[in-house]
Structures are given as C-alpha cells and as structure tokens.
Amino acid sequence: MANKKLKFGIGIAIILAVVAWEAISGFQQSKTYYVTVKELTSGKVTHQHVRVGGTIEPGSIQRNGEILTFRLSQEKESIPVTYIGTATLPDDFKGGAKAIVEGDYMTDGTFRAENVQAKCASKYQAVPPVPKQTPAVSKVASYGLPK
Questions:
Q1: Which residues fall within 8 angstroms of residue 94, CB to CB, at 6 or more apart?
Q2: Distance between CA 69 and CA 114 in Å, rounded?
Q3: Are strands 33-36 and 62-64 parallel, antiparallel or unpaired?
C-alpha cells in the first residue's frame, strides 16, 4: 500500500513539474518588449524579439509579391524592416505615418516583422466644408422661363 502511494506521489510530482515548466517557458516566449528605433540601433537592447515604434520613411515602402520592405525611423536613426505575409495593411500605412512592428532584430541590422500596425492619429479633424456654388442654369432648362 505504501508503495502505491509513493508511485502515485511521484507521478503527481512529475505532472506538476511538467505543467510548471510549460507555463514558465510559455511565459518567457510570449514576452515582447517595446523599444524605439533609437534604443534598438544603440545596441542597448538585449532581447531579440521586440516591438519597435517609429515613423515610416516616405518613399521607402516597396512590395514584391508577399514581401513588404520599408524603413522605420526615429530622429536620425532608421532600420530596414522586412515583412512577409498576406495580411492586408491598414489604409493609413504610408510614408510619414507612425507604425509599430513586432518581430526579431537580426544580427545583420535588419528587422524581420511578424506583425505590422499603423498607429492612428490621436486627434481627428473634420475636413472644412466646401463652399456651395450656385449651379449654372442650363440652356435647356431656361427655354421655358420668363426673363
């Protein structure tokens, strides 16, 4: 009887150890740090899987099939970003817009993005109304009108 309890206890301990190991390793893999382009290029970042925020350089967006490349910049620093995927990018993903990319910073200085997001403007302004112009009376409509 004591032998069965010992085997049962060892089995429970092994199961708990495996569950704890999976939880800890899963948490470590899902951690993503947010950094700026300047922090990433300075070499201060020790984590390879990061989220980077910056401004898309105007004229740098190029699409070749499923491969999208562009440059993400902050002040005078910039990094080349490569995104491979078929996900539709937001309408405001264009040069000069703010963006956040998530992925891995490679040893050659390029950033391989898994996710690309365009940041929304924090303040939306209405387009000023266009002044109404009086429609010109067409000749066809003016034939029956008295002058």
A1: 56, 61
A2: 12
A3: unpaired
pLDDT tens digits along 33-81 = 778 888 888 877 666 788 888 899 998 988 888 888 999 998 888 899 9
Strand 77-84 relative to strand 62-64: parallel, antiparallel, unpaired?
Answer: unpaired
102: amino acid identity, one letter = E
Q: State the Cα–Cα distance between residues 10 and 24, nearest whole angstrom.
A: 21
48 contacts 32 by C-beta, under 8 angstroms: no
* Model-wide pTM > 0.70: no
Residues β-bridged to residue 71 = 80
Token digits for 29?
């893999």
101 is written with which tokens?
Answer: 């990319």
Structure tokens at 36: 């700026």
**Rounded-to-integer distance, Cα 94 and Cα 81, Å:** 14
Domains and CATH numbers, the chain: 31-118 (2.40.50.140)
Task: Give dist(CA 98, CA 118) in Å, integer.
Answer: 6
Q: How much of the chain is in helix, strand and coil states, percent to nearest 5?
A: 25, 30, 40
